[in-house]
Amino acid sequence: MQFQLNTDSNIQGNDGLADEAETVVTSALGHLTDRLSRIEVHLADVNGAKGGSDDIRCTVEARPEGMQPQTVTHNDANVDAALRGAAKKIRSLLDSEFGKLDRR
Predict the structure, then answer these.
(1) In the structure, how many helices (H) and strands (E) does the chain have?
(2) Residue 64 and residue 5: Cα distance in Å, rounded?
(3) What is the per-residue pLDDT across 29-77, written as a single tens digit (0 to 9) for each?
(4) pLDDT at 104 over 70
């Protein structure tokens, strides 16, 4: 499975952040990672320098093998909270989608 992190100009993207994002998302997905070909995480500060609550947006796109890409978005106060919230949402979405397929 490939992992890719993208950040906007307001968030400093570095190897440490990429490692943290990969750890948070893949640990949340757990057993589902073997059914995915790629995960993309996009981090953006929607208000830029203005600040404010819930202004960090984390979008996670998972590409399951043989299926259309699945995407979730979560806004939170900081990068870590946004990553964790989006990771929970993508796991829930993929559990649901794979559950439907497995029942067939």
Answers:
(1) 2, 4
(2) 17
(3) 998 999 999 999 999 998 877 767 788 999 999 999 988 999 999 999 9
(4) no
Let me know the angle formed at the C-alpha of 31 by 29 and 35, rounded to the nearest 5 degrees: 90
Domains along the sequence of the chain with CATH: 2-103 (3.30.160.100)
β-sheet bridge partners, residue 58: 43, 74
CA 61 to CA 71: how far, in whole Å?
4
Q: Is the pLDDT of residue 84 over 90?
A: yes
Mean residue pLDDT of the chain comes to: 92
Q: Cα separation of 93 and 74, whole Å?
A: 13
d(CA 30, CA 57): 23
> Which H or E run includes 93?
helix 79-103
What is the DSSP code (8-state) at residue 48? G
- What is the Cα–Cα distance from 80 to 59, expressed in whole angstroms? 13
Report the pLDDT value the prediction gives residue 48, as an integer from 0 to 100: 75
Instruction: Give the residue from 57, 55, 58 showing the smallest Cα distance to 39.
Output: 58
